[in-house]
Amino acid sequence: MTRKKFIVALVAILSSVACGAQSSETYLGAGAGYSFMNSKTTELFIEKKVSNKDIAGLSASVYFYSPYVKLDLKAHTPYYFGGIFYKRIIYTSRNFGHHFMLGVDAGWKRKQFLYYPNIGLEQEFYLSTNTKFFFAEEVNYVPAFDHKWQPLLKTGLKLRL
Question: pTM (2 decimals)?
Answer without folding.
Answer: 0.76
